[in-house]
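Homework help thread (please don't just give me the answer)

Our assignment gives two proteins as sequence + structure token strings and asks us to describe the second one. The first is just a warm-up. Here they are:
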Amino acid sequence: MECMPVHETKTHGTAALPYTVYHSIIPEFIPSFPLHWHDDFEVIYCARGQVLVTVWGQAYRLCAGDLVVILPRGVHSIDQCGEANGEYYNIMFHPSLFKGAGDDPCYTKYVLPFLNGEKSMECFHPAPSGFNRAVTPCLLSILEHRRDGYSTHELLMKSQLFLLLHHMNLHSIAASGDSGLLQLSFSRLKDALYYVQHFYDQEISVETAARTCGFSESHFMKLFREFTGMSFNAYLINYRLELAARQLSESNLKVIDIMENCGFRNQSYFTRAFRKKYGKTPSEYRKRPTLQDSSAET
């Protein structure tokens, strides 16, 4: 049975132009996008309504015009913000987009520090902030030409992404030693997420999860909450519910089979937990009207 990968390895765009733009409306297109990470830079721009974006365990409420910058390998998720709907765009671009031939000094100076943890920047940039005002024209140009960015506006797209990287460097800060140690601990915690990805249908104790990361239970529980914004048990249940929602949408399996496939053993508990997260029972969720296209618009 297909799981939901926590490390996204999908290639965004093409080898020659490794960037893409995704458009989504939450919860119409997707109810949420679970905790994950990837090797791309990502900008999440809220166009309408509200969206809740969590980065390294810190939750940010995005309203229209707000944006979040996620550096490569940053752990993040996207959720509905309370009862509000939200329309947003993900602009994703791989570091290799900025690498020239041979030993590129600009890549070494301006990109590598973001990748090796020497340089960082704030995640959340509300509409009135300086960084937001500086890059919004770039983002709006990218969104406007996203459908012809691989055919007639390649130079425009590349120039806007280079300009975006320029502003990211202007607003970057040197990473502190404490920040580096915390990121190292968080990297070890990713092993617990991998463990859930592979064994979500089995009983998983906090003790077992802590052991996979090499931490004591108490230290693991403290770090995991800082890392994800929730307890390990809450994360495990949420992961199972996300997977159940996907199977309800994409398969014809019986509800009880999906429940068992996803690691739930009590049907009444599964129904209560599912209703609490999605506002519908599993059967009602399966019958809801859906919009199919949340894929890239280029």
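The one we have to describe:
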Amino acid sequence: MIRSAKILRVAVAAFAVSGLCLAGASATSLGMGTVQGDGLRMRDSASTSGAVLATASTGTNVIVLADAGNNWYKVDFQAQVGYMSADYVTLSTKADGNLGNGKVSTDGATLNMRSGPATSESVVSVLSSGTVVQIVGVDNGWYKISYGGNTGYASSDYITTVKDGTSASTASSKGQEVVNYAKQLIGCKYSYGCSGPSSFDCSGFTSYVYKHFGYTINRSAATQLSNGTAVDKSSLQPGDLVFFKNNTSKAASHVGIYIGSNQFIHASTNTYTVRIDNLSGYYSNIYVGARHII
């Protein structure tokens, strides 16, 4: 729902949040503002005499934090807080749009990414404190966020905006590189005790792929389960190791690489080739855990 800034200013003023940080913001926001004038200046105070902090072009999205009065909005633009003339910003309390990156700020606790903008909605993923996500919209005090191939919602109270270079994309893009390289080996033969370059057993395959990127991990599935850091199944990212256990006293008897969309790639003992399988069904029943390596 988008209306002119002048009409909405009075309606939203009661929801303004006081005491907001002057760095990357973490607070219930009024919504998304869209700049309507080329070269709109963001200033350090709600006045044309305030110093210019940044300049935004037509169509740029900003996070509107508060009605500052006198035809000014307090906004977050590129993880910097300042003021923009409300005459040149239209406000929507519910909208999709690129709003940059945000970091989960929960003092060490986890944050639920939900399927909708309410605590009653189902949990899509569980995010650790410090996780960096993409903010792709707003919905009445909730951020619409994207992370690890999932899109959901999280309260804006627990997301702090960060500069676009401080992103989870470094890890996620490296994980995607791991996946892309692993896919080049599809069709290679499974052979027990082998670790490449054309034949692999399951842990030989994962160790070979990661070695290509400069990571040395343990050689067996059971011992690879101690590499990296543990990750919940709901928070899997491309490149994570996924582990399985079947008819053994060991911690794990099989390992593969998660590729996204509930799929993983592995040196399979079912077809004796490197292939892609789903984490559902049989593999869901014997799944025992996952590890972030990157």
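TA reply:
I won't write it for you, but here's a hint about the kind of observation we're looking for: The helical segments are 5-13, 169-183, 202-212, 221-224, 282-286.
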